[in-house]
Design brief:
By secondary structure, this protein is an alpha+beta fold. It is built from 14 helices and 23 strands. Helix 2 packs parallel to helix 5 and helix 12 runs parallel beside helix 14.
Length: about 550
C-alpha cells in the first residue's frame, strides 16, 4: 500500500549546500526563470518597471517554444469569433477550465498578436490577410502560423530581438536554477549554479517562474532535453501549491523511427487533410470519433494507443500523399522526413503518441500570483486553469503571450512599489552526507521514464499507479539523501520529485476526464468538477480535491 508518511520528498528543502555569507550575490528587481514564450514575454513587460534578470538553463533558444510547429490560436476581433474560441476551449477542456482564465485568453489574444506584428514577426499571409489553419478541437480556421510549420522558431527570434533591444534586461545563460530562496515563507530570489561562476544567490524583489514542462520524465516525448520539471520541483520544495499534475497531454503524432529521438509532426498536418491509417492502409479514426483525425488530442491519442494494441503494431501512419503543396506548407516536416529517407509523395509517415504538454503546474491567479508571497509563475510551468482537462491545439503559445504579459506586469509593478531592496538575510543549508553506495544515475533516469510511460501514460489503472508511487518512494530514499554537484544529479532528483507528485495526483483522481484516462474509472468525470492539488507537507504528501478555481 502506498504510504503518505513523510519522506525525503517532503522534508528536503534545498538541493545544494550553501552559505549566503560565502556565496556570490546578484541583485535585481525582477528575476525571470526561463526564456520560452512566457518567460521572455514576462521579462519584456517587467522591464517597463525596473531591472530584470532572465535566467536560462541553456542558451536563450533552449525551450519547448522553439519546437512549436502548428501556430498560435487566436480569434479575429469579431465578438462572435472570440466567443467561438471561448466555447471551443471550454468544450475541449471538458468544462474543467476556469472560465475567467479562458475569457482572458480569448479576449486579450488579438492584442498580443498585434504586438508581435509591431515587433517584426513574420506570419504567413494570403493576399495580405493572415493565412489561417485548423487543428483538432477547433470548429473553424483560427490558427496563425509562420514559415509554414516553424512558428516556434519565428516567435523565439522575434522575442529574442525584442529582449536584446531592452537595456534593462540582462541574460544569464547556461545557468542551472536550483531552488527558490525563502525567508519566513516569502520568496526573495533563487540559488543557481553557473558553469563559470559557480553557485550564485540571486536576490529579487519579485521572482517569476517560467521554466516550462516535464516531458523528459516519460520515455516517449516531444520535449527538448531541458524539460525535466526543475521549476515544478523547486516550487514544491518552496511550499507552493501545485494543481492538475495528473493532466499530462500526449501528442498523437510524433515521428517513429526505431533508435531515433521522437520528433513532432504538427497537428496542422491533419488539419490540412492528412489521414491516420494502420499498417494495412485502413483509415481507422472514423471508428473512434465523428470528427475523425480532427477530434481533440486526448481522443486521438487513446484511439491510436488502442489500435496499436489491437493490431499489435509499433506505430500507425500519416498519409499525406494526396495533399498538394505539402513541401511548401510544411517545409520543416518535409525535411525531417527526407532525413529519414521517407518520400512523402509515395511513403506513409510512421507515427505514435508521445508526452507533450503539462496542463497542470503551479497554481496561479490570473495575475500570475502563487500561494508563496514574492513568487509568480506563467507558461507551461503554471496552472492557470485555461486548458481544463485537455489543452486545445495551439492555445499554448497564446497562453504564454497573454499570461506572460499579465505576470510580468504584476511582478514589475510590485517590485517598483518596494522602496528598498530585499534585505540580504543570511541563509544556509547543509544537507547531511550519505554513506550509501554511489548511484547509477543514467540507469535511474531510464528506469523512471520507462515506469512512467508504462504506468502513468495514456491509459492508467489504480494498482499500477500505487506500484509507481511505491517504486518512486524507494528510489527517492536512495537518491534524495545525496547532495550532487552537477546537473545530472539535480535533474534526477527533480524528475523523481515531479514524477511522484504526478503519480499521486493521478491516483487521487479516480474518474476519467480529458487527458486523464483510467481503465478502472469509477465515473466518466462528468460529475467530478474538481481539481487535484498537492502542497509540501512535513507530515507527508496528501493530494486534495478542491472545487475548480478555489
Amino acid at each position: 500500500m502506498t504510504s503518505t508518511m513523510p519522506t525525503l520528498y517532503d522534508t528536503r528543502r534545498y538541493l545544494t549546500n550553501f552559505d549566503s555569507n560565502r556565496t556570490s550575490h546578484v541583485l535585481t528587481d525582477v528575476l525571470v526563470i526561463g526564456s520560452g514564450v512566457a518567460g521572455a514575454r514576462a521579462a519584456i513587460e517587467a522591464s517597463r518597471h525596473g531591472l530584470v534578470t532572465l535566467l536560462c538553463k541553456g542558451d536563450f533558444t533552449d525551450s519547448a517554444t522553439r519546437f512549436a510547429q502548428g501556430g498560435i490560436a487566436v480569434a479575429q476581433r469579431d465578438p462572435s469569433a472570440v466567443q467561438s474560441h471561448y466555447d471551443d476551449t471550454m468544450r475541449v477542456g471538458c468544462e474543467l477550465n476556469r472560465p475567467e482564465a479562458v475569457r482572458a485568453l480569448v479576449d486579450e489574444g488579438p492584442a498580443c498578436i498585434d504586438e508581435l506584428v509591431a515587433w517584426g514577426i513574420e506570419l504567413d499571409r494570403i493576399n495580405g490577410a493572415f493565412a489561417l489553419t485548423r487543428e483538432g478541437g477547433h470548429s473553424v480556421n483560427r490558427i496563425v502560423h509562420a514559415h509554414g510549420d516553424q512558428t516556434g522558431r519565428e516567435l523565439v527570434r522575434t522575442l529574442r530581438r525584442r529582449v536584446e533591444h531592452l537595456d534593462n534586461i540582462r541574460i544569464f545563460d547556461h545557468c542551472f536554477f536550483l531552488d527558490f530562496l525563502t525567508v519566513a515563507g516569502v520568496c526573495v530570489g533563487a540559488v543557481a549554479y553557473h558553469k563559470r561562476h559557480g553557485h550564485q544567490l540571486i536576490w529579487a524583489k519579485q521572482t517569476v517562474l517560467a521554466s516550462g514542462g516535464c516531458g523528459q520524465i516519460w520515455r516517449e516525448t516531444t520535449n527538448p532535453p531541458v524539460s525535466t520539471g526543475d521549476g515544478l520541483a523547486a516550487a514544491y520544495r518552496a511550499g507552493a501549491r501545485l494543481c492538475d499534475l495528473e493532466m499530462m497531454q500526449f501528442h498523437p503524432t510524433t515521428l517513429y523511427v526505431a533508435g531515433a529521438g521522437r520528433a513532432l509532426i504538427s497537428e496542422a498536418v491533419r488539419g490540412e487533410g492528412a489521414y491516420l491509417v494502420d499498417r494495412n492502409g485502413r483509415r481507422f479514426m472514423p471508428d473512434y470519433h465523428p470528427d475523425a483525425e480532427l477530434a481533440p488530442r486526448d481522443i486521438v491519442s487513446r484511439a491510436i494507443q488502442s489500435h496499436l494494441e489491437e493490431t499489435r503494431a509499433n506505430c500507425v501512419y500519416l498519409d499525406v500523399r494526396h495533399l498538394t503543396g505539402f513541401q511548401e506548407r510544411f517545409p520543416h516536416i518535409a525535411g525531417l522526413c527526407k532525413d529519414f529517407e521517407i518520400d512523402i509523395t509515395r511513403d506513409l509517415i510512421p507515427v505514435r503518441p508521445s508526452a507533450h504538454y503539462m496542463i497542470g503546474g503551479v497554481d496561479v491567479q490570473l495575475d500570475g500570483s502563487t500561494t508563496v508571497e514574492g513568487l509568480l509563475c506563467c507558461g507551461e510551468a503554471s496552472c492557470t486553469g485555461v486548458h481544463g482537462a485537455n489543452r486545445m491545439a495551439s492555445n499554448s503559445l497564446l497562453e504564454g503571450l497573454v499570461f506572460g504579459k499579465r505576470t510580468g506586469e504584476t511582478a514589475g509593478r510590485r517590485a517598483a512599489a518596494q522602496s528598498h531592496p530585499t534585505p540580504l538575510t543570511r541563509i544556509t543549508n547543509q544537507n547531511p552526507s550519505s554513506s550509501r553506495t554511489t548511484l547509477d544515475l543514467p540507469d535511474i533516469r531510464n528506469s523512471l521514464s520507462s515506469v512512467m510511460w508504462r504506468n502513468v501514460g495514456i491509459v492508467r489503472r489504480g494498482d499500477r499507479l500505487r506500484e509507481t508511487c511505491d517504486i518512486l518512494d524507494f528510489w527517492g530514499h536512495y537518491t534524495l539523501d545525496k547532495t550532487f554537484d552537477d546537473a545530472l544529479g539535480w535533474e534526477t532528483q527533480n524528475k523523481l520529485t515531479v514524477a511522484r507528485l504526478i503519480a499521486l495526483s493521478a491516483l487521487e483522481r479516480t474518474d476519467s476526464i480529458g487527458v486523464h484516462f483510467r481503465s478502472d474509472a469509477t465515473s466518466d468525470g462528468s460529475t467530478s468538477h474538481y481539481q487535484v492539488t498537492v502542497t509540501r507537507d512535513a507530515d507527508g504528501t496528501k493530494p486534495a480535491r478542491v472545487p475548480v478555481g478555489a
